Automatic annotation (TrEMBL):
SMART domains: HTH_MARR. It comes from the Bacteria. Pfam families: MarR_2. It comes from Streptomyces mauvecolor. This is MarR family winged helix-turn-helix transcriptional regulator. Gene3D superfamilies: Winged helix-like DNA-binding domain superfamily/Winged helix DNA-binding domain. Residues 17-149 form the HTH marR-type domain. InterPro entries: HTH_MarR-typ, MarR/SlyA-like, WH-like_DNA-bd_sf, WH_DNA-bd_sf. PROSITE patterns: HTH_MARR_2.
Length: 153
């Protein structure tokens, strides 16, 4: 069942720092800063960490799929994958079996590094969640999904 839509257009807040978009960007920037700080201790960037997490869940993802899922361009995704491969954290075949995709997989060292860093990253998310009353977390997640869906198409 679809929720009712306001009949009057929304009026922007008098203070730009109270706009939904501004507050979402502020939260995203704070999250990115906290993650950068934690990941730096492990020699990883946010896109590298996200790639390791995704490959742990979905081995064999292509560069294009990983780039989309980690919110970077394909070119940047390829740089991330090359860096992870050079660090011995992932492996990719030298040539594609079919098409152009080179499916990536975590190495044992990649699984170990991911396990080492997960607790620190999850602690950042826990700090974020603890700022919200527990009964509102599920609604927030639903609302964030709805916002993304509304803007994606």
């Amino acid at each position: 069942m679809k929720e009712s839509v306001p009949t009057e257009p929304l009026r922007p807040a008098d203070d730009v720092t109270r706009h939904v978009g501004y507050l979402l960007k502020r939260a995203q920037a704070a999250l990115r800063g906290a993650m950068d700080k934690v990941l730096r201790e492990y020699g990883l960037t946010v896109p590298q960490y996200a790639t390791l997490e995704l490959l742990a869940q979905h081995p064999g993802m292509s560069n294009a799929d990983l780039a989309r899922a980690t919110f970077v361009t394909r070119q940047s995704g390829n740089v991330v994958l090359r860096g992870l491969q050079e660090a011995g954290l992932i492996t990719r075949p030298a040539t594609a079996d079919h098409g152009r995709a080179l499916p990536a997989r975590l190495t044992e060292e990649g699984r170990t590094r991911l396990a080492e860093v997960q607790a620190a990253v999850y602690a950042v998310e826990q700090r974020m969640i603890e700022a919200i009353p527990p009964q509102r977390v599920a609604a927030l997640l639903t609302d964030l999904d709805r916002i993304a869906a509304a803007l994606e198409g």
